[in-house]
Amino acid sequence: xxxxxVSGLFKxxxxxxxxxxxxxxxxxxxxxxxxxxxxxxxxxxxxIITGSMAPSGGSVRVAGFDVFEDPIEVKKxxxxxxxxxxxxxxxxxxxxxxxxxKLKGVEASRVKAQVEKSIEKTDLGSVRRRLIQNLSKxxxxxxxIAQALVSDPEVLILDEPTSGLDPRQVAExxxxxxxxxxxxxxxxxxxxxxxxxxxxxRIIIINRGHIVAQDSLEGLSTRMAGATQVKIKVARPSGExxxxxxxxxxxxxxxxVSMATLWRLPQVVPQTVRPTVSLSExxxxxxxxxxxxxxxxxxxxxxxxxx
Length: 307
Fold this sequence. Notes:
The chain is an alpha/beta fold.
């Protein structure tokens, strides 16, 4: 069963389009990594899924409920950790979690049990009576995860859950998220590739507001093996230049950026087609002679750009 369905989602801020035509599904119990560089549209997508922000178009359904037509039903089923945990420093851990549980509509008879359960899951027992403002950043992040868990939601949305943590704290939070697998459907957004490698079963890659790939980690690694990106700069871009590039074996897509043309070779298999062969074809093109051809640069393995 699909727990989350996102269809044709886009968000604009005036002339600026933050996300465009976002489409994906997440199955019940799945742990999905939403991977992309800073500014790619990850947080915008997370906020729309949780109902914290209205989209410019498209639809989102969580557990069969439309986020915008049935927002209360959706919010009952979602636990959300934004990039900056929404904690009150002048409250103790325990009193804060009780406050959040009541705010989320947990039945009065279940509040105590749910607070205890979230404290146990996040290993906050030793600091439960301490003021949140006196905790380390790692523990404050745990409190943020605990508030997301306190209503026992079906879905967890974690936005950059290890942001700003030291290596030991990162390891602790990763271990905690691994323990939550199977109990909740989880979307974890990050710009760090090792993060999704450590915790996720499937990856959705977003860049400049567009989803550029989605698959299992193994599937993406296979598809991207030997991937090469070549950036070509020419003095006078034209349709003939693009036709010449598209005719070269192995070229899958062209993206023009100002005067530069981006040449992507995503599936050049070293055993059968060597990248040097394609590059030699590039140098044979008419625009490469004389003043027309300015420069080119090669970048390998597209996935590694996000690490």
